[in-house]
């Protein structure tokens, strides 16, 4: 083939590459099938959003009802209404959580479809670029000297040069787009992983909410058992429960004061001081969640008294660890269904109380080492050591500073 013909063919190829390069630099549409599936998923995601918004409005309405009822006079009817609203709200919370899980799953499917389409597009573009490179290599045998000799003017030569430069620019743009597409793909994969983690957390939250629902139902059951009583009898029972709580609280406060004085008089304070400053650990693992916080406004029995500690969800019979070395100041345990607790006295004016215990592993007036098993959790209504005011298996844990209840979360590791 003579040089002139080769140059003509090269020009056609250059022009073809330039044209193809123009198209390759433009965004490629997603495949039709994927577009259809993505549209369907977007519709389903939007539907879940609407359903979640509707549920949220109902949840907010129940929350307002609960606040309104809590401000009313504490009657049997009022307390049952509060619990009924709390249970209804919690049921809606569970439904909303389930809808969010469904929405997350749909979003993950949506991302997967986009990733698949992007991978196909990248593969197609790579094939095109490979073909262009093969054509350039095959026809890049004509030297610039030959082009100058065959062209009639420098203008033709410069036109040919511009074609060549344009092709290289387009190829560079195509490679940059591929790199950007790859980075976008990696970002979407990372997003997929984050959404998967969020989905697992939502599932855990849902399970926790179901457990909380069971506890709320139990709390409601305690009140419903009293519905056969007159309002006057109900108020009398509340008064007795308040007296019992005040008596226990006063007993713990007085015991702590007397025991600290006794330790000083018996010269045991020196041994006590060997423990060093109190640095608490969790008496049971908080992994299963905290059902009631310090002075929690949602505490089911708040109409009787403020909740003075944490209720840590724990299976019945879970070992209780001493959160710090201390002196066993008091054990209230009869082996029946009455309220049972253990009190430890620590340095820095701190003491800890563990209630609804189903078994005791220490004795009064002995020292417990940090982390030592001092008892077993309880709280299951009607079980040993549970007492009257319990909604399910858990450990009631108090921290007291100079006899006054304080927020345990301020003393526990986060």
TrEMBL record:
UniProt-listed Gene3D superfamilies: 6.10.250.3150, Glucose Permease (Domain IIA)
Cross-referenced Pfam families: CC_PcsB (PF24568), Peptidase_M23 (PF01551)
Keywords in alphabetical order: Coiled coil, Signal
M23ase beta-sheet core domain ranges (all copies): 307-408
Coiled-coil ranges (or none): 38-135, 168-265
GO MF terms, alphabetically ordered: metalloendopeptidase activity
Protein origin, superkingdom: Bacteria
Limits of the Peptidoglycan hydrolase PcsB coiled-coil domain: 115-187
InterPro entries named among the record's database cross-references: Cell_wall_metabolism_enzyme, Dup_hybrid_motif, M23ase_b-sheet_dom, PcsB_CC
Classification via PANTHER family: L-ALA--D-GLU ENDOPEPTIDASE (PTHR21666:SF289), PEPTIDASE-RELATED (PTHR21666)
Protein name: Uncharacterized protein
Origin organism lineage: Bacteria, Candidatus Buchananiibacteriota
């Amino acid at each position: 083939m003579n040089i002139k013909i080769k140059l003509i063919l090269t020009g056609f190829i250059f022009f073809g590459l330039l044209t193809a390069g123009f198209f390759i630099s433009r965004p490629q549409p997603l495949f039709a099938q994927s577009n259809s599936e993505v549209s369907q998923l977007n519709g389903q995601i939007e539907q879940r959003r609407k359903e979640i918004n509707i549920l949220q409005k109902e949840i907010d309405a129940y929350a307002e009802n609960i606040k309104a009822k809590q401000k009313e006079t504490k009657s049997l009817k009022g307390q049952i209404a509060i619990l009924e609203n709390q249970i209804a709200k919690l049921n809606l919370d569970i439904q909303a959580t389930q809808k969010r899980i469904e929405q997350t799953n749909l979003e993950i499917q949506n991302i997967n479809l986009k990733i698949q389409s992007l991978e196909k597009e990248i593969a197609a573009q790579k094939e095109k670029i490979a073909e262009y490179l093969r054509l350039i290599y095959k026809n890049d045998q004509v030297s610039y000297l030959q082009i100058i000799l065959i062209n009639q003017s420098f203008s033709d030569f410069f036109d040919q040069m511009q074609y060549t430069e344009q092709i290289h620019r387009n190829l560079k743009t195509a490679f940059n787009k591929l790199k950007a597409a790859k980075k976008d793909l990696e970002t979407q994969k990372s997003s997929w992983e984050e959404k998967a983690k969020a989905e697992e957390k939502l599932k855990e939250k849902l399970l926790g909410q179901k457990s909380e629902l069971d506890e709320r139902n139990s709390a409601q059951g305690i009140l419903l058992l009293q519905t056969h009583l007159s309002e006057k009898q109900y108020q009398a029972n509340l008064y007795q429960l308040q007296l019992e709580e005040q008596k226990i609280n006063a007993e713990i406060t007085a015991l702590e004061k007397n025991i600290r004085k006794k330790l000083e008089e018996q010269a045991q304070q020196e041994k006590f001081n060997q423990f060093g400053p109190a640095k608490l650990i969790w008496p049971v693992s908080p992994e299963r969640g905290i059902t009631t916080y310090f002075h929690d406004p949602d505490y089911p029995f708040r109409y009787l008294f403020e909740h003075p500690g944490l209720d840590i969800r724990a299976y019945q019979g879970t070992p209780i660890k001493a959160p710090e070395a201390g002196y066993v100041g008091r054990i209230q345990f009869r082996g029946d269904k009455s309220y049972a607790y253990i009190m430890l006295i620590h340095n820095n004016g701190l003491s800890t109380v563990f209630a609804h215990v189903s078994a005791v592993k220490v004795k009064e007036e002995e020292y417990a080492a940090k982390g030592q098993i001092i008892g077993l959790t309880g709280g299951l209504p009607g079980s040993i050591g549970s007492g009257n005011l319990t909604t399910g298996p858990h450990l009631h844990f108090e921290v007291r500073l100079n006899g006054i209840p304080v927020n345990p979360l301020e003393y526990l590791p986060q």
